[in-house]
Amino acid sequence: MMKKCLRSIAVAVVCCLTVPVMAAEKFEPVRMGSGIMTFDTVPGWGFDEQGRSVLGPTHGGVVVDKEGNIYTSAKIGVFVFSPDGKVVRRFLGDEYSNIHDIEIRDEPEGEFIYGARNVAGEGIKFHAETGDIVLKLPFPKESGLNLKKFAPTAITVAPDGDIILSDGYASNYIFKFDKDGKYKSHFGKKGNGLKEFNTAHGMTLDTRYNPPRLLICDRNHQPKGRLVHYDLDGNYIEEVVTGLGMPTSVAIQGDYVSVPDLHGRLVILDKTNTIIAVLGNNEDPKTHRNFNVPQDQWREGIFSGTHGSYWDKEGNLYVQDWNVSGRLMKLVRVK
After folding, report:
1. Which of 79, 307, 332, 334 is most buried, judged by most C-beta within 10 A?
2. Quick one: pLDDT at residue 22?
3. pLDDT tens, position by position, 33-46
4. What is the number of H-type helices and E-type strands within the chain?
5. Which of 315, 241, 330 is nearest to 280 (CA)?
6. Phi, psi of 125 (to 5 degrees)
7. pLDDT at position 11
8. Does the global pTM surpass 0.90?
9. With contact defined as beta carbons under 8 Å apart, do 253 and 244 qualify?
10. Angle 298-305-247 (CA atoms, 0-180°, nearest 5)?
11. Per-residue pLDDT tens over the stretch 221-248
12. Which residues pair with 119 in a beta bridge?
């Protein structure tokens, strides 16, 4: 399996290096946010020696492992960076392509990446260091649903190991499996009602509560996107916040939640679910919510279509844009 991935590297990386860019050192860090959530950008973080992104098109997520390495999913596979922005390993090829959302979990056998693959129509679990795939979650026919399409967009894992997989680009049902991949239940459906989802796009385990809850990004819910809480059995609890534009994913650290918005910004919520900071806000209608902004038109400190984010131990943020050239940014927390 790893040999197959390595054979894909040369072609894939060459395809990623076709966009001319200006040298990263020509840009100065940009400060953004407010109060305790103030950050500085790191110009050129993750670029190669020619100042280019190595990722290719991005439409995925971000996580950080125990050692501080950063994983991000792109069209061609999963890239792993050191905190200083150097690629330390990558998992490329058909089995790792188009992972829309990723979660990481420390288990007795090591750390594992869980992924939702919208194009392949499955969930996946693989070892974070070796890339060995240990579990796949296809559409569960045992559910009794007669779906014409299955396109998972989000995945998370309960404390007992149960896996929750959201079919956000199709039926908007959310499926629950046990740790071995056996189907258990499903909930939700498509719509704009209080207990319905209009693109259940992102999801994570909200550990700010005891017991933990599911925090779900209902991206296209009308009149504007919202976050909602469900318990781990699929029972509706409450709307958390509304009017967020197009929230794509959520990441928790302590009492705080980072919420990328496809309109080109990232908002941070506190324990009361109040917005306390807005990062990278893009007010240009030509470039926000725009996949086709090439690297030579990126603006330092301004996002175009934030899709994934994650915190490291120091409270720094890593943010991925939905972008044709592949954009992953490091934001350093100002102490």
Report:
1. 307
2. 45
3. 999 999 999 999 99
4. 1, 25
5. 330
6. -135, 130
7. 37
8. yes
9. no
10. 155
11. 999 999 999 999 999 999 999 999 999 9
12. none
Q: Residue 26 — very low, low, confident or very high, per pLDDT cuts 50/70/90?
A: confident
Report which residue type is found at 163: I
Token output for 12 = 């894939």
Q: Return the pLDDT at 27.
A: 84
pLDDT at 196: 97
Give the 3-state secondary structure of residue 133. Answer: strand
Q: Could you tell me if 276 and 35 are in contact, meaning their C-beta atoms sit under 8 angstroms apart?
A: yes
- C-alpha distances in Å from residue 164, one per residue of 11, 113, 135, 140, 160: 34, 14, 14, 12, 12
Is residue 120 predicted with pLDDT exceeding 50?
yes
Instruction: For residues 315 and 173, give the distance between their C-alpha atoms in angstroms, rounded to a whole number.
Output: 33
Q: Measured on CA atoms in the order 84, 288, 249, 260, is the torsion positive or negative?
A: positive
CA neighbours within 13 Å on the CB side: how many for 274? Answer: 2
CB pairs under 8 A, 24+ apart, for 142-149?
142/183, 143/173, 143/175, 143/183, 143/186, 145/171, 145/173, 145/186, 147/171, 147/173, 149/121
pLDDT in tens, 86-98: 999 999 999 999 9
The CA–CA distances, whole Å, from 166 to 118, 161, 172, 176, 326 equal 10, 16, 7, 9, 24
Q: Provide the Cα torsion 4, 98, 269, 196; round to 10°.
A: -140
